[in-house]
Write a structure and sequence with these properties.
The protein is mainly alpha-helical. The protein has a single domain (about 5-60, about 70-100, about 130-170), classed as Four Helix Bundle (Hemerythrin (Met), subunit A). The chain is built from 5 helices and 3 strands. The protein has helices spanning about 5-25, 40-50, 55-60, 75-95, 120-145; strands at about 65, 105-110, 115-120. The chain has a 3-stranded mixed β-sheet with strand order 1-2-3. The longest helix has 26 residues, at about 120-145.
Amino acid sequence: MSLGKEFLKELLLESEVTRTYLASVPFEKKDFKPSDKSETLGRLAIHVAEITAWWTHTVTSDKLDFAGFVPEDINDTVQLLGYFDGLLAEAKKHLMKVKDEEFEKDWSMVYGEHVVFTLPKKQVARRFCMNHLIHHRAQLGVYLRLLGIFVPAVYGPSADDDQVLLIKNFNSISLD
């Protein structure tokens, strides 16, 4: 199996959980932030969704330039889920066909002329696309907890969910 397809299987597993978290976001509380240094709930939720686009950027280009970046203006859960689903479909399309050699190439995150980092695309996929998503999704869980909103299970039941989460077998994920 190609690296792109292996990453895609993992992304699809994580995306099931991510979508559940995004569906839990109460946009009537989008301005909530747990501290002055924190992002708002609305911006964090949009960021969790938009990270999915980074898979496409990673396999189709050699850099992502944040100069002039403006996040999507999303104000309800239906818009958020539609945005996420569209980005996931695009990532799936590209991960299905990317050649393994592409993951050996360097990729950079830049802000105009400033290079934030440069890493091989394989490391970008793992650290920047996957781990970064999981990190911010966990933050979103904290926001939900602080707001008294049901926190969905991730890799096992949450304190709000007494049902055992059945962990899917990686090999049972269909890429069709």
